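Q: What changes when flavin-adenine dinucleotide is included in the input?
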Amino acid sequence: VEELFAIDPLLSSEEREIRDTVARFGERRLRPHIADWFEEGTFPAREIAPELGKLGLLGMHLEGYGCAGASATAYGLACQELEAVDSGVRSMVSVQGSLAMTAIHFFGSEEQKQRYLPAMAAGELIGCFGLTEPDFGSNPGGMRTRARRDGEDWILNGSKMWITSGSVADVAVVWAYAEEFGDEKPRVRGFLVPADTPGFTTREIHRKLSLRASLTAALDFDDVRLPADAVLPESRGLSSPLACLSEARFGIVFGALGAARDCLTAAIDYARTREVFDRPLAGYQLTQAKLADMALELGKGQLLALHLGRLKDRHEITGEQISAGKLNSTREAIAIARECRTILGANGISLDYPVLRHANNLESVLTYEGTAEVHQLVLGKALTDANAFR
Ligand code: FAD
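A: The predicted holo structure follows.
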């Protein structure tokens, strides 16, 4: 598809090199194990994170503190290649770099940045990002988690749900309404909570049918006492976590298309060798129509992703544009994955092929970082000036 749309020449040699290095790592180190991890419902984050760190993929778009300082486009291409293996791997990288590290980079004190970022960039420390709660996902402003002052300390109470890497993280970035002296209303602020803090417990979420090669957890905070400097000092309001989400969403614009490309490649390979009614499946017009339509959507998606990457690298991208990219990539990727599944017939439902694994993963990708509906509402508001969220 890249060839069909002449996408390669649009990339710099450095961008191609980063993309190809990540693709080789994915094929060599991750793909041989991914079906087993998915089946077992696990991901060896502790083992893989330092390897991702060595490649410079953790917080790769951030500057300084041991981060690679790569372009947004290069980061997107890395996400594409990781998600071509599995959305779970890309999720871990997104959460570490675009959510947890970005929160510290954007809103942390110099001391917090020095303490956490180099170790997180190296994959020696794993982070998670706790915004969603059991009763509040699309509407995080409704969150119930609270931090109140007790002398200089903070006391944190509440719970978070669906937190990627939550059960393995060394440090959780937790968003809570902070009740400060002198403030009229509590404001959402970020807190750094080390995993071994008394009163902080995690529970891994099992029985998932999607993102199985990813650790997902519930976090509970029961009178967790935190020192005064646990708060991210520059975080003031819900716009702080939303700014981090915007960074992670951008990675998904590229990432989801990696999963779609992997499905399409598998379907084309399969159709060329599978004989039905004495001829290869690839030679039937119905199959070719499916393949052509999918290649078209994939190519259009990749061109849009690249355009958004260039806008982001010029610091010109808007939230609505990222919403448009996230909506398009996830919606088309899941449609492609499901269509590819049909081409593989019964084999399509097996973990011996990647397509249903990708399709199932993409159910989560469609939902997290703003559901498809929420991004439609973002675009609807931009088009009409009318807020249909509530
Ligand atoms: P709801 O908000 O309850 O939405 C339910 C349905 O209602 C959806 O279809 C939604 O689009 C629709 N809806 C909501 N509001 C409106 C409206 N105004 N108008 C019309 N329709 C509406 N969260 C984190 O904080 N950190 C993580 O690391 C993280 N990792 C995740 C990993 C996985 C595998 C999954 C599945 C989720 C993860 N999440 C994480 C949570 C995710 O961000 C939320 O699930 C998501 O924001 C949706 O929230 P919800 O599930 O509560 O759905």
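Observations recorded in class: The pocket of flavin-adenine dinucleotide is lined by residues 95, 129-132, 137-138, 162-164, 211, 216, 364, 367-368, 371, 373-374, 377, 389 (CB under 6 Å).
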